[in-house]
Amino acid sequence: MKEALDVPVLMITFNRPAYAAMVLEKVRQMKPRTLYVFSDGPRSSKDEYDAVEQCRSLFAEENIDWECEVKTMFCTSNMGCGKAVSSAISWMFEKEPYGIILEDDCLPDDTFFTFCETMLKRYADDKSVMHVSGTRWNEEYDTGEESYFFSRIGHVWGWATWKRAWDLYDYNMKSWDIKEDWLQLYKQLKSRVQTQFWVDNFDRMYKYSAAASDTWDYQWQYTLFKNNGLAVVPVKNLISNIGTQGAHTSAKASANHNRQTATWIDNSTPKTEVQPHYSFDNYHISNYFYKDARLLRHAKWYVKSFLV
Fold first, then answer.
1. Residue 185's closest CA among 209, 212, 221, 149?
2. Phi, psi angle pair for 210, to nearest 5°
3. Helices (DSSP H) in 31-128: which residue ranges?
4. CA dist., res. 232 & res. 308, Å (int)
5. How many Cα atoms are found within 13 Å in the side-chain-facing hemisphere of 215?
6. Dihedral (C-alpha) 281, 98, 218, 227: value to the nearest 10 degrees?
């Protein structure tokens, strides 16, 4: 019989019960001792009350058929994606020292939970490690034979972190200083174009509340950069985003959905030196975040980097 998972799991749901049921089935197989369930409220402008209630009913006592303490936060009104997700994570860390976070469209391989549990415990006291990623992008880039590596980029389609790291998070980015932060990012990325790409995005989040209202993950990436934090990344992808239907799904985003997952096998000894994989990060930022940007756009970022 499979042992119960000691790491708390947070499931964040909204209005897609079919997706939530699939993710819950994966969670059920792991039998976490503690399950946090956050559900944002229906939007007044949409006919989605029934869908939200269907999601919530999945977590009724009679449906949790393993020994588990279930904690729920069901919102009566809609908070919006940005505030909802970040508030859900903060709610879990009011009680827990670490945890796994799954939104309702992030379908994990079984070994995702093993990977998170292993890394959360292995790097619990290393403050330079702030994030455990479930996704591995740009798998065509060979990062070596070891089963994980470190990156400056923390992807959030299935991930985990510690309270000590999340306590540094600021949704409103009050510490943003474009000149100071530009220099800090440049020291980390060593590329004027890549630095300006991130600075432009962070400055937009900081200045325009409309841009940030549905966003919480740019602020988390800013937190990683601001604190020289690293993400530990599996060498193989462990999450498939199945959310091809939803308010925030675009044709471009859908191209990244339903990716294959693999089994994670820990063939690495704990690393004595925790350093980002510089060449992978350089490749990843260029070939994931702005792979479709034209050369003229690159030139503009480069020129603008001298004007900050």
1. 221
2. -65, -35
3. 49-57, 81-92, 110-122
4. 31
5. 18
6. -60
Condensed to tens digits (0 to 9), the pLDDT of residues 70-126 reads 999 999 999 999 999 999 999 999 999 999 999 999 999 999 999 999 999 999 999
- pTM over 0.85? The answer is yes
- 237 and 259 in contact (C-beta within 8 Å)? yes
Q: What is the residue whose two structure tokens read 């991130």?
A: 198
With 0-12 CB in 10 A as exposed, 13-18 as middle and 19+ as buried, what is 116? Answer: buried
Please give the share of the chain, as a percent, with pLDDT higher than 70.
Answer: 94
CA dihedral (74, 79, 81, 86) positive or negative: negative
Contacts of 231 (CB under 8 A, 6+ apart): 129, 130, 131, 132, 133, 150, 151, 152, 153, 154, 155, 224
Residue 90 corresponds to which tokens in the numbers above?
Answer: 């903060």
What residue type is assigned to position 259 of the chain?
R
Tokens encoding 143: 């990062």
d(CA 100, CA 84): 16
What confidence tens digit (pLDDT) does each residue in 18-62 have?
Answer: 999 999 999 999 999 999 999 999 998 889 999 999 999 999 999
- Strand locations in 124-219, DSSP E? 129-133, 148-151, 159-162
Tokens of 67: 């020994």
